[in-house]
Amino acid sequence: MKNIYFIGFMGCGKTTVASTLARSIQREWIDLDEWIVREEKMPIPHIFEQKGEVYFRALESRLLQETLTLSGKVVSTGGGIIGKEINRTCLNQETCIYLDWPFEELYRRIDGDTSRPLVKSYEQLKALYEARRPLYEASCTLQVKCEGHTPYSLTNYLVDVLKLK
Ligand SMILES: Nc1ncnc2c1ncn2[C@@H]1O[C@H](COP(=O)(O)OP(=O)(O)O)[C@@H](O)[C@H]1O
Ligand SMILES: O=C(O)C1=C[C@@H](OP(=O)(O)O)[C@@H](O)[C@H](O)C1
Ligand SMILES: [Mg+2]
């Protein structure tokens, strides 16, 4: 059974919707960021500060590869997973859901969040969002326009469209 991956920009609800969906269809949920924090025994901002983003990205890729050896999991990724071509290629061969929201909504959710080290200015985030959009589109197998939807309604929609029950 294929895994189901969630991708999208910071704040789009990958962690929230993946956990809700996993519960709904009684599958195991894996959050790559939580796994990284467990492996490193420190929060993500500390990993960025002490070991650097390159180190974080290598670990993120390695753990993504590990999930590919598993089956039937629901996996929430971090928003930057699509930076590496190898990750994009792998994700595109799985069931990969892009939670697509307008930037302004995401900005409202993540502005001032110190647990996300890449959250800096409005302009910097907007540029990152624009640069990443085509990469999410290239990596996903299903793009979901989420505006107006709750995690619950998105979960029900995915169960239906992916015929998960
Ligand atoms: N469909 C939704 N509607 C409104 N708020 C949402 C929705 N999905 C997630 N959120 C909220 O957005 C914030 C970021 O969600 P999170 O799951 O951490 O995103 P990600 O893992 O993609 O960065 C959380 O406060 C969460 O409750
Ligand atoms: O977009 C990114 O580069 C990142 C997103 C974060 O995950 P969320 O997308 O769950 O916030 C986390 O992996 C790290 O802070 C880097
Ligand atoms: Mg998350």
Order of helices and strands: EHEHHHEHEHHEH
The CATH topology turns out to be Rossmann fold
Distinct bound molecules: adenosine-5'-diphosphate, shikimate-3-phosphate, magnesium ion
Task: Look at the structure and name the CATH superfamily.
Answer: P-loop containing nucleotide triphosphate hydrolases
Distance between the termini: 14 Å
Q: Could you list the spans in which at least 5 consecutive residues all have pLDDT below 50? A: none
Subcellular location: Cytoplasm
Family: Belongs to the shikimate kinase family.
Cofactor: Mg(2+)
Enzyme class: transferase
Layout: helices, strands, pairs:
Blueprint (H helix, E strand, L loop, with lengths): L3 E4 L6 H12 L3 E3 H9 L3 H8 L1 H15 L6 E3 L8 H8 L2 E6 L2 H8 L11 H18 L2 E4 L5 H11 L4
Parallel strand pairs: 1-3, 1-4, 2-3, 4-5
The protein binds adenosine-5'-diphosphate, shikimate-3-phosphate (S3P) and magnesium ion.
Adenosine-5'-diphosphate (ADP) binds next to helix 1 and helix 8.
Can you describe what's shown?
- Helix 1 packs across helix 8 (151-161), helix 2 (32-40) crosses helix 4 (53-67) and helix 3 packs across helix 4.
- The protein is built from 8 helices and 5 strands; from the N terminus they run βαβαααβαβααβα.
- The mean pLDDT is 98.
- The two termini are 14 Å apart.
- The chain has a 5-stranded parallel beta sheet with strand order 2-3-1-4-5, sandwiched between helices.
- The protein has 165 residues and is α/β, with parallel strands linked by helices.
- The longest helix is centred in the last third of the chain and has 18 residues, at 122-139.
- It has one domain (4-151): Rossmann fold (3-Layer(aba) Sandwich).
- The radius of gyration is 15 Å and the shape is globular.
- Residues 8, 10-16, 76, 109, 146, 149-151, 154 line the site of adenosine-5'-diphosphate.
